[in-house]
């Protein structure tokens, strides 16, 4: 029984250890992992080149990322400048403050769209991985007239 249990654990470890999926780890930012390596957007671009559809989605997402960063930075700068003036005792310019808030409000949905496109690209890449990378092991239950057992074929 111990041998069968050990073989079952070994079999499941073989299956689970062979995948090279890109995993998303989100702890306050965008972190993608391939095996033990963490990928930034440029590394992710190189990995996704092999899948045309995923690479196109990542390219689109990078365009959204640039627009979102420019709008968010500009909006934050306008709001920050007005808050600095307010702290210094100067009057708050409503036009610049609300313009900054509006730019940030536009940047947020663009950033969400960019994140979704990257996640979709990673999902497409992961779904298109070769199933041949998984081991071709087959576990069978065998019974004869006098005994029963498990057969593991590679």
From TrEMBL:
Highest taxon of the lineage: Bacteria
Protein name: Uncharacterized protein
Organism: Nonlabens ulvanivorans
Biological classification of the source: Bacteria, Pseudomonadati, Bacteroidota, Flavobacteriia, Flavobacteriales
């Amino acid at each position: 029984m111990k041998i069968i249990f050990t073989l079952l654990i070994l079999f499941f470890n073989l299956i689970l250890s062979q995948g090279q999926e890109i995993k998303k780890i989100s702890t306050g930012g965008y972190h993608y992992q391939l095996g033990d390596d963490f990928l930034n957007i440029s590394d992710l671009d190189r990995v996704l080149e092999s899948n045309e559809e995923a690479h196109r989605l990542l390219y689109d997402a990078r365009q959204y990322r640039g627009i979102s960063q420019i709008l968010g930075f500009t909006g934050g700068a306008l709001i920050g400048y007005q808050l600095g003036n307010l702290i210094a005792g100067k009057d708050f310019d409503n036009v610049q403050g609300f313009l900054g808030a509006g730019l940030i409000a536009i940047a947020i949905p663009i950033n969400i769209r960019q994140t979704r496109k990257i996640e979709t690209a990673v999902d497409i890449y992961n779904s298109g991985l070769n199933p041949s990378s998984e081991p071709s092991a087959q576990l069978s239950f065998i019974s004869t007239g006098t005994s029963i057992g498990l057969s593991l074929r590679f």
